[in-house]
UniProtKB/TrEMBL annotation:
Keywords: Cell outer membrane, Membrane, Receptor, Signal, Transmembrane, Transmembrane beta strand, Transport. Pfam families: Plug. Residues 1-25 form the signal peptide. It is found in: Cell outer membrane. PROSITE patterns: TONB_DEPENDENT_REC_1, TONB_DEPENDENT_REC_3. This is TonB-dependent receptor.
């Protein structure tokens, strides 16, 4: 009966979508005029040779979401494994990559956490400050970092994107809301400009006592209560400024603070002793200096991130505490050699440190040098070739090539790309729990002897615009990977580089899985339909197919933990006095269960979220909204044991002044 309901709902939504409206937050002919940074050379989307999506500031305000990870869920090729809603924690994958193989940038600087990629979604900006998000699928290692395997998510804020002029203006946008289970939400930002100075800031909070669930550990663990809550307290504060010294010189700076306290039960382990709670803090600072001329442009970007993590696995055991630091810089120089030929050369470096009670004290440095060349080869064919020489203390020196081709015509655009990427294990994969004596079974264990992952990806795609308001996009890709890093169920008797384990017990041990191959298809159909009195309908259907194989046959934890089929729908009506937007997802994946912790990943499930917005006073100025998260109250998990919230209703006030 459950499967029949799911199929019926999906069929109805599909029929509605195909007979109504538009490519929401995606590649449309209008968005094709936007320059994106798929490489370090700004290029029109249709000429980039890459599969690109754009999410604008207006899209963010319209969607029924409260965090960036929820916003990305509906895009083709992007898969999320969430442990809670409202941005608490989610692993972001692209094209079936692991969560550690996606590069997240804020205003040109990577923010991937050096402790663990589980924290990559701890983005140090409020959503109200975001001008747009560029999602570039496929390897981008030569331009932005050797480990950009699945793709990059580039968040660009309003102060970073907007140029300066001599006008005086002020704007503010955001929302404040309340909901069930003592939920309190705020996301507010402002942007001001006075002559050559721009300044912006933002605040984002998500606080709740959480929903209540039965505790599988009750009666098995002495300290365990009969129930537990998935409570959370997330707070982010940001401030940025930019000053245009002259027509050529511009200085930009940003500082952000992110603090999170949340229940982390079964977030990382399948242990019956897991009663985890976690607290994280991070401070992010960034400085950018740019010089723009008629033929040359130079950009220097520097960033520093300091983070701390307090992880309490069980009240009866000591907490693990970690302090990390990450220094990043990039220097890029672009040259317009002529109208058809553009060159970019540069360097990028990172230094990461950790002091940890369970991982020890370590540091790691890497530096890369790259060259990118973009040329109009024929009247319609444009090619971009790039190469990177990367040195990392973990794997030595590697050569990383990348090439893309674009053939845009009036109503259709063909594209293809190929690239190599390499990724070394992070501090958690190499050292987690290595300093803990008598480690309990079922927990993760790091491996200092890990080799670096190497991946090659090729894709082919076509974007079709048969008439105004209709977009059809299809992409097929194939990735082969060697030495992929994942946690496999391993008996302690087979682990030779640790003497802190219980005999003949099973652990999730970080291992180089011999190799993996992923084939995927990404499809999009979007239709726009304008109505009278500035009203319109728009809808979008996105479908992603992923098939991952591994010759070794190891039971890994994350490599194949992605949906095999992911069908999403976006439906929206925008009227004179009210708007309605819904996002829905039909997901089919490999089922998994672990009865000891009530862990169950279903083979298929259907999710739907809804936002209704009323504007009784002034259009697009002040409005009242109601959001329903998990409208159908679906019972599901995406990480084994981490129970996702059921239906959750909230309402509030939204403004754009």
């Amino acid at each position: 009966m459950r499967k029949l309901q799911i199929r019926t709902c999906s069929l109805v939504l599909l029929l509605i979508t195909l007979t109504t409206s538009s490519a929401f937050a995606q590649i449309t002919m209008e968005l094709d005029s936007i320059e994106v940074t798929a490489t370090r050379i700004p290029t029109l989307i249709k000429e980039s040779g890459k599969s690109v999506s754009i999410i604008t500031h207006e899209d963010i305000q319209a969607m029924p979401v409260t965090s960036v990870d929820e916003l990305l869920q509906s895009l083709p090729g992007v898969n999320l494994n969430s442990r809670n809603a409202f941005g608490v924690q989610a692993d972001i994958g692209m094209r079936g990559s692991t969560f550690a193989q996606v590069l997240v940038l804020v205003d040109g600087i990577r923010i991937n956490d050096p402790l663990t990629a589980h924290f990559n979604n701890n983005i140090p900006v409020s959503m109200s400050e975001i001008e747009r998000i560029e999602i570039i699928r496929g390897p981008a290692a030569t331009s932005y970092g050797a480990d950009a395997v699945g793709g990059i998510i580039h968040i660009k804020t309003r102060t970073f994107v907007n140029g300066s002029d001599t006008t005086r203006k002020f704007s503010s946008s955001g929302n404040i809301g309340y909901g069930e289970h003592s939920l309190f939400l705020t996301d507010a930002g402002f942007h001001g400009q006075l002559d050559k100075l721009q300044i912006s800031g933002g605040i984002k909070t998500s606080i709740s006592e959480g929903q209540t669930f039965q505790n599988p550990n009750f009666g098995q663990v002495e300290s365990a209560d009969q129930t537990y809550r998935n409570d959370f307290n997330l707070q982010t504060y940001t401030l940025s400024a930019a000053y245009q010294f002259s027509d050529k010189w511009r200085l930009y700076s940003r500082v952000g603070f992110d603090e999170r306290d949340f229940s982390a039960k079964y977030f990382y382990t399948g242990s019956t002793f897991d009663e985890s709670y976690e607290e994280t803090e991070s401070v992010w600072t960034q400085l950018a200096l740019s010089r723009t001329g008629e033929m040359h442009q130079t950009d220097l970007n520097m960033g520093y991130r300091n983070g701390s993590d307090y992880f309490l696995f069980n009240p009866a055991l000591p907490a693990n505490e970690h302090t990390t630091g990450q220094y990043a810089f990039s220097l890029n120089h672009g040259i317009n050699l002529d109208n058809d030929l553009r060159l970019s050369i540069g360097t990028q470096g990172f230094h990461k440190t950790i002091e940890s009670t369970d991982r020890g004290n370590h540091e790691n440095s890497s530096i890369g040098f790259y060259t990118i060349l973009s040329k109009q080869l024929t009247e319609h064919l444009k090619g971009t070739a790039s190469a990177r020489l990367e040195y990392d203390e973990n794997f030595g020196t590697e050569f990383l090539p990348q090439v893309s081709l674009a053939y845009p015509l009036e109503n259709v655009s063909f594209r293809s790309s190929f690239g190599k990427a390499i990724r070394a294990g992070d501090f958690t994969e190499r050292f987690v729990s290595t300093q803990i004596k008598d480690l309990s079974p079922g927990r993760n264990l790091g491996n200092a002897d890990l080799e670096a992952e190497t991946s090659y990806t090729i894709d082919f795609g076509v974007d079709i615009y048969p008439y105004d308001g209709l977009t059809i996009s299809n992409t097929a890709f194939y990735r082969t990977s060697d030495n992929l890093i994942d946690y496999t169920v391993t008996n302690s008797n087979s682990i030779s580089n640790s003497d802190k384990l219980q005999p003949d017990a099973e652990y999730y041990y970080a291992t180089n899985v011999s190799d993996s191959r992923t084939f995927g298809v990404e499809s999009l159909i979007g239709k726009y339909f304008a109505l009278a009195n500035s009203r319109f309908l728009h809808a979008e259907v996105n479908y992603t197919y992923l098939y991952t194989t591994n010759d070794a046959g190891d039971v890994s934890k994350y490599i194949a933990n992605h949906p095999k089929h992911d069908l999403s729908f976006i439906l929206s009506y925008q009227g004179e006095y009210f708007d309605v937007t819904s996002t829905s997802h039909l997901i089919k994946r490999n089922s998994e269960s672990l009865s000891a912790i009530n862990g169950r990943i279903q083979s298929d499930y259907f999710l739907s979220h809804l936002k209704v917005e009323a504007m009784p006073f002034s259009k697009n100025r002040v409005s009242f909204y109601m959001k329903v998260h998990n409208l159908l109250d679906t019972d599901y998990q995406e990480i084994l044991g981490a129970q996702m919230p059921g239906r959750w209703v909230m309402a509030g006030l939204q403004w754009n002044i």
